[in-house]
Design goal:
globular; mainly beta; 1 helix; about 525 residues
Length: about 525
């Protein structure tokens, strides 16, 4: 759609297939690390009301795709080191605890030679056969992306790769049945991954150019197709917005407002629930802010809450955003609010650029302004929640009005004192929590001090690209407190918490969250 159809010849980096063992790209000596990005900086007088954007930090690539790893680092990819389209050459792993300088980045060659530009990615959960036989994962599944045919880009590939987080290595891992470019990964309640949509080739958009049949990936069994489902739409191939509902079904919210209900047993089924929502596009975010409830930014500043817990599902208008934020990014925060960053009133041009963050409160259904960023975040930008409660925002370009080889960290208001000092607020601390938690079960959290805790929340780690993050989901958990010990209960509905990695936050009486402990909710293996 918006890709560069006239790219220059790829740069020869001196590695790749047949070129020997790939070596890490040496970090530049020009930009030493700043203080740890995990620390909260002084944000000035308005930080308690609007939060604070730190100064832009140089990024080795345009981070079109971002994934929060199970150890709190961020995997990003999308372009080469000059910011040109293509991810067949390199990817980057950033460690927030080391700051934002070049030595906080591990920029590595993509030894698979697969161009994962505009592909799909999802964090693989851990497996267990019993509570004494446990296998940690935390790797990333990557599928599809761009393909160059006879020197022409923007076809599609069917390759699958896995990023092995322990070794920071990207390796080939077989193929899907269908090539897919711009497809979505959707986590299922059993830990499998559904991939849906995507283009097959560069031809004029038609049914023949779209991957109409979804596939499911099992970490041990590989791929299988869902022949009973046919999305059959030449428009809705583009990063489809599909979410796991509280009833085990998947719900596909289309741009024209149609809602499809999908099931994945056997060959799968598809039911059209009719038009329930206003007109929208894939150029604006839709996020699951609570189990079965979506905040969807539609066209022309219109915003709706889609309630999948009702039968039939409903769409309700809430307060509009201040401007039409095309190519903005939505991020669910630890307190259950939704942050929207970036975008512009005209698609991917510097017209009506939305520099200010906006935060939506589900209790009031209203928006408040956040701090202003320094950079325009338009097409090919992304945002993910970090374990310290801040949000990494970055990218934009390839193509675009500017190549944003940089990122900015947004620190929300809950991280600051409310006295106008701009100083970071005192935070509760998690001294210990289990590495793995069981759905429906109880677990114990030990606090660093005996102070009243007001809320406990879990947020699924994010995986963001192209105004879409289908991994995030937020849930407040019931708990009891005895001194500096919390007894917390996970949700009893596995549809609320599909297997994966979750950030566990506790909040003090002032509503300030702790730094998260990342815990694993494993899947059963066959």
């Amino acid at each position: 759609m918006k890709e560069d159809d006239n790219p220059k010849a790829p740069v020869d980096y001196g590695y790749g297939p047949g070129a020997g063992i790939p070596k890490a790209v040496a970090p530049s000596a020009v930009a030493p690390s700043a203080a740890s990005a995990a620390a909260i900086p002084n944000g000035g007088a308005e930080a308690g009301a609007k939060g604070f954007f730190a100064a832009p930090a140089t990024w080795p690539i345009i981070p079109i795709h971002m994934v929060l790893l199970s150890d709190g680092r961020v995997l990003s990819y999308g372009t080469d080191l000059t910011g040109a389209q293509g991810a067949q050459m390199n990817y980057d792993v950033w460690d927030p605890t080391l700051g934002t300088g070049s030595d906080a980045h591990l920029t590595l060659p993509n030894g698979t030679s697969t161009d994962i530009f505009c592909g799909s990615q999802s964090l693989i959960g851990s497996d267990f056969e019993s509570w004494t036989t446990y296998k940690n994962s935390g790797d990333v599944l990557l599928s599809g992306g761009d393909l160059t045919v006879n020197g022409v880009r923007n076809y599609a590939n069917n390759k699958t790769s896995i990023f092995y987080a322990k070794d920071d290595v990207l390796s080939s891992a077989g193929t899907m049945k269908f090539p897919r470019w711009y497809a979505s990964f959707v986590p299922l309640r059993n830990g499998d991954k559904l991939i849906i949509g995507g283009r097959l080739n560069k031809d004029t958009l038609s049914r023949a150019a779209v991957a109409v049949t979804p596939e499911i990936y099992h970490v041990n069994l590989g791929w299988r197709t869902l022949a009973g489902i046919d999305i059959g739409d030449a428009i809705e191939y583009y990063y489809p917005r599909v979410f796991l509902g509280v009833d085990s079904a998947l719900y596909f919210l289309k741009g024209d407002g149609h809602l499809l209900r999908l099931t994945t047993s056997g060959p799968g089924t598809m039911e059209d629930k009719g038009i329930i929502a206003a007109q929208g596009t894939a150029y604006r975010p839709t996020v699951m802010f609570s189990p079965g409830k979506l905040l969807s930014i539609r066209n022309n500043k219109r915003v709706q809450v889609i309630d999948l817990t009702k039968s039939p599902p409903t769409a309700t208008d809430v307060a509009s955003t201040s401007t039409d934020r095309i190519w903005s990014n939505g991020t669910v925060l630890p307190d259950g609010k939704v942050l929207v960053t970036g975008g512009s009133s005209s698609e991917n041009v510097l017209t009506g650029v939305a520099y200010n963050a906006e935060i939506w409160d589900p209790k009031t259904s209203q928006w408040t302004f956040g701090a202003a960023a320094a950079k325009a975040r338009l097409y090919h930008s992304a945002a993910v929640l970090l374990a310290n409660g801040a949000v990494l925002t970055g990218g934009g370009g390839a193509p675009g009005p500017t190549k944003q080889l940089n990122a900015e960290i947004y620190y929300p208001p809950y991280l600051y004192r409310q006295d106008g000092s701009g100083e970071p607020a005192p935070r509760p601390t998690i001294l210990s929590a289990p590495e793995i938690v069981k759905g429906g079960g109880y677990f114990t959290v030990t606090l660093g001090a005996n102070e009243p805790i007001s809320k406990v929340a879990i947020v699924h780690t994010g995986s963001a690209t192209h105004s879409s993050d289908l991994e995030q989901r937020h849930l407040f958990l019931p708990f009891t407190q005895a001194g500096n010990t919390l007894t917390v209960r996970m949700s009893q509905n596995p549809n609320n918490t599909p297997p994966g990695y979750y950030m566990l936050f506790v909040f003090n009486s002032a509503g300030v969250p702790s730094v998260a402990k990342i815990v694993s909710l494993p899947r059963s293996v066959l």
